[in-house]
Every structure is written in C-alpha cells, then in structure tokens.
C-alpha cells in the first residue's frame, strides 16, 4: 500500500486512527511505510505521495489495556524511527491476546520499555536543565513587560509533554522555551505552540546570571565530587546550554586543593565556633602539644557531638593502647560490637586483626589502636544495625581527634587499614588496592603503611579469603620493626 503520513512527529491521533484502519484491513506492521511531516529526515515529495492518516475511514476500536496505551503515548514521542512499527506490532498482538502484554521478556516489550524509560528521562532532564533569561518587551503605548526565554535541545519529541510542568511551576510569569522543532510560550493563561527556532533567537547572559554563577560556585562541594555520576545525571550534551557548565572544568580542577583546605580547617573551625580552643585545636593548627595526654583526650572526645552520626551512636569509641607505642594502627570506624563496649577492634574484624598480631609475634600491649571516625555510622534494618561506610563529612568531623592522638603519641609509623583511614591520615584519596604495601610520608614526617582493612577479608569470597589474608599478613609484617621498637617515654597507658 502507499505510505501513510502523519501531520507532525507527535500526531498521536493520526497514528491511532491509522493503526485501527490497518488492523481492520489485516495489514501487517512490516508492510507499512510511515512518513512524518516535520521529521528531520522527511522528504517533501514522499510526503506528498503518501496517504494522510486523518483521511482514512474510521475503523472499529481496538480493546487495549490502559497500562499499555498510557506509556505508548510517551514511547510515540521517541526519536527512534522504529517506534511506529513497534507500537503497531504490540497493539495488534495485545488486541488478539491480552496476555501478550504480560510477557516482560518478549523482544518487543523489552524495546518498548527501554524507549519509554528514555523518553521519561528526557522529560525529567528538560524540567531540570531549562535555564530562563529575562528580556524586556516594549509595545506601543504600553509599559515594558518582562518575558523569560530559554533555549533547549531535546533528543526526543517531548516539548509538548513537558510544557505543562513549566505552566504550573511558573504560572505567574510570561515565558517561552525555544527548541529546534517547536517553541512554546505561556502568557499566564494558556500554552501556545509555534514553529521551531534557532539558538541565536535566545537571549544572551545578563547580570542576574553572573549572580547565579557566583552562588553555584559557592555551593559546589569538592568533597562530594563524583564525575561519572555527575555526567550520568547531567549528560554532557546539555552542558553547552547551561551557564554553570562553563564553571565545571575549573571547579573540578580546583576540587582536590579545596577539599584539603576543608579537611585541614574543619576541626579547628568547629572548636573556634564553640569558643573552646583545646588540645585538638592545637593538633590541627600545628601548635606543639604540651599539656594533654591520651586520657584527657579520651575524656574530651566522650562529650564531642561534632560528628553527624554522634547522636545515633551509643558512645564515642576512642583509641586504646600504650601511650608510648611506636606503632599506631588506624582503622575506619567502630562497628556494632565496638559501639556497645566502647573499645576499638573488638568485633569480628578486630578479632581477625588481633589474630594477625599473634601470628606476627606482635605484643598488642605495645601498640596503639584507634579509628579515623569515633562513632558507629549505621542504618537500622528492623532491629539490626548495619554498618555504613562513613562519608567525608564524618571523617572531617573526627579528624581533629585523630590528629590530636598522633600529636600526643608521636609514633614512628602508622598502619592505615582501609581507604577511610588512609584518606584521613594523608589528606587525599588513596587507592588501597593499587597502593597496598606502600609507605607514604605524612607532612609531619610520620610514615604510613597502606593496608587492607580486615573487614575486606571477611567480606571476600570464600575461595579468595585465604590468599587475601596471606597477602594482608605480609603487608602488616612490613611494620614489624616499629612494633618492636623501644617504647617512647609516656605518662601512662590509655
């Protein structure tokens, strides 16, 4: 048969009428050629020779479930040219057997669901990434009126579907959104759609945009930067039309330095805000520690509520061991057992660590054990408290206590168990797998051995656990000379 033409790429009414007609005349989807006026690949001569879908005789209705029809209207907005035969095939199959729609693994259903997700995502991205700029419109004998205009380049035909959101969100403003295919404007009463536009038709930046960019830079948190996730949520194709995107490169380049400044200043700044400059403040700022020992630090830390998870924990779990120790062991955070008993490394991971001390011939009484984070970070699952990896905010809040312990102890070396410990000790991200067994010098000259956390061994697959543990023991063995070093003079044990 001759090709069928639709009035626009979003002509759902014409498409529905054509599918009913084709079904009534038993025309298979693979025998139909579609022409869409306004499509990027349209051919004016081909469209002129095609049959207008709206001119087809009316046909009996097809009984289709609402759970198919509602998402089908959105799949119809996809830019994929295969969507029309796909929708036609599915409609015919479901009309003949309603159970066909309940098969989620059929190839057509899988493609349908994928296209539907992509259209929904594109509508969401339009809602998120449209940026309006104000322009003044002056008419004869009328005061000037401000209209907000935006430029957007959607990947699918979703402008008509997305526009009502902006009418609700900005009901009191006059605005317009320009796109290459269609434009929409709101006068405060109704939406009006018109022909597409060019990028040059949209207004340029104004003074208000400079203020927005200053605000964007001020709220950019370098400690939470995850570039891959950012690009997933804000795809790069949108960046050219987002004013803040021009700032992203410089902000990412500066992020490591800003993050280190935040870490270095975090603990002391909180102490200053409380009006209490104490041993912890001195440790962060580099002032020599004279008037405090580990026991006084323990008493002060017990009252600390700087950590975001402090109120949910049972107690502060401070370090313990010999105050003259030459080797310091730093883990991630206390677990459930440690939170209840108030002592570090007393849970399953701690038992594995203490067993390693025995195997290495280390006297645990000559060591000092602590954690980078002093409170148990967890989430409730029924009555169980499940461990959650502490974030940078929790580590930064406890950093001044860790630095105070180091300043009071003055160890020769430190073993960093896991990424959180290494980051807190060195002030930067450390790939534990890549750096395992490496010694890194801190700014104060103390050497840090990068090592797996014992919990990583417990979580490993049974087939890998023995080999992983043997490698872990070999890494710990490198710190042996410091474990047996002469004890430093100390005022007592903590």
**Average pLDDT value?**
84
Strand order of the largest sheet: 9-11-10-14-16-15
How far the N terminus sits from the C terminus, by CA atoms, comes to: 90 Å
- Kindly name the structural category: alpha/beta
Give the overall shape: elongated
Counted by DSSP, the helix tally is 19
* Helicity, as a percent range: 40-55%
Give me the Rg, rounded.
33 Å
- Beta-strand portion reads 5-15%
Q: Which spans have pLDDT < 50 for at least 5 consecutive residues?
A: 41-46, 267-291
Number of E-state strands: 16
- Largest sheet at a glance? 6 strands, mixed
Task: Walk me through the structure.
This protein is of the alpha/beta class. Helices cover 44% and strands 14% of the residues. The chain is built from 19 helices and 16 strands. It has helices spanning 12-24, 44-49, 66-75, 83-96, 107-129, 159-169, 207-219, 227-233, 245-274, 279-285, 294-301, 336-341, 348-360, 392-409, 419-426, 432-435, 454-459, 462-477, 480-483; strands spanning 4-6, 34-36, 51-52, 133-137, 145-151, 175-178, 182-186, 191-195, 320-321, 327-331, 367-371, 378-381, 384-387, 413-417, 439-441, 447-451. The strands form four sheets. Strands 9-11-10-14-16-15 form a six-stranded mixed β-sheet, sandwiched between helices. A five-stranded mixed β-sheet has the order 4-5-6-7-8, covered by helices on one side. A three-stranded parallel β-sheet has the order 2-1-3. Strand 12 (378-381) and strand 13 form a beta hairpin. Helix 9 packs across helix 14 (392-409) and helix 10 crosses helix 14.
